[in-house]
Amino acid sequence: MHLRWVLALLLLLALGVGASAQQAAPTDSGKTLKVGVYVEPPFVEPGPNGYRGLAVELWEWTADRNELDFAYQALPTIHDLLQAAEKGEIDVAVAPLTITEDRLKRVDFTQPWFNGGLRVMIEESRSYGIREILRGLVDAGHVRIYLWIAAIVFGATVLLTAVDRHFDQDFPRRWHEGMAESFYHVMSVATSGKAAHKQMFGVFGRILAALWMVCGVTLVAYVTSSITTVMTTNALTNQIAGFSDLNGKTVGVLKGSVAEAYSRDRGIGTVSYGDLPQAVQGLLGREVSALVGDAAALEFYDRSHPQLPITEVGGIVHREMLGFALPQGSPLVHELSLAIIAATEEGLLDRLRLKYLGSSN
């Protein structure tokens, strides 16, 4: 009988200890959380007293709701931020982090708090300089023909010099002076179709001069048309109206981002940058043909820098959901998810979208 009472008492004590442990685990109020951030306006950006932005305000609201103490720690790239969360070096990762199957194998995510997607940014009214034209001429095989034309002009210059030195007593005796004189006559016929050279050899000479004039006009027409064709082709083939026009081009992406993986999976060449300002400089410096990134971040950067010749094209591709990332097994996931749901129900997220994005949609 006494044994039964003792066992019952031990069972009640065990249940009481377990319940109190479960209640204490989620908040761990005595601990200051390490909150990693990655700067990407309008979600996270430096402020007068630390950081501000859509994601930061949402995080601070959820932290205040759960009475959590925390300190921010900035990381240079999305890759570094996720790696720190995976290793447990930070307790929460606050940034526009896309929830993907691959990332869920490494970290836990809260309830999504934003629906976004990827979009393309290009340089507005991009012009094409000498370098692009030369590359187009080489690719089309025109430069090889230009070299043949140059060889023919040189040969004609040498031949005309030799003939004039032999038959024209007034022709300069020095070779370099004679070559210069002959080169002028050859190019005059080739470019203008007019022969300023002294008539020689009677009818035969006139026929030769006429044939050279025809050849000269043809050469000029060919050079002009080939350059025009290359310029037109460049303008057409380099027009980017959306993601479907990126095949065969190189795009800029943020290191460790979903845009990086999405572009590479589709065979598009990428150049990875640490942050969006670096990527935009790469775009304007002609390092890449376009940028692929989070639509909201690209649009916000464009609005914030009206002096830059950049614009977004095409619709949103690869719809995605954003959330906060935590180390796997973190007891904070449930509490933060409940707070995010409450923020949605109370209209806080709509107000934050309107404040930072100009739209609550």
TrEMBL record:
One of its GO terms (molecular function) is ligand-gated monoatomic ion channel activity. Residues 32-360 form the Solute-binding protein family 3/N-terminal domain. Keywords: Glycoprotein, Ion channel, Ion transport, Membrane, Receptor, Signal, Transmembrane, Transmembrane helix, Transport. Residues 1-24 form the signal peptide. Residues 32-359 form the Ionotropic glutamate receptor C-terminal domain. It is found in: Membrane. It is a multi-pass membrane protein. InterPro entries: Ionotropic_Glu_rcpt, Iontro_rcpt_C, Solute-binding_3/MltF_N. Pfam families: Lig_chan, SBP_bac_3. Its main location: membrane. Gene3D superfamilies: 1.10.287.70, Periplasmic binding protein-like II. The chain crosses the membrane at residues 145-163, 203-223. GO terms for cellular component: membrane. This is ABC-type amino acid transport substrate-binding protein. It comes from Ancylobacter tetraedralis.
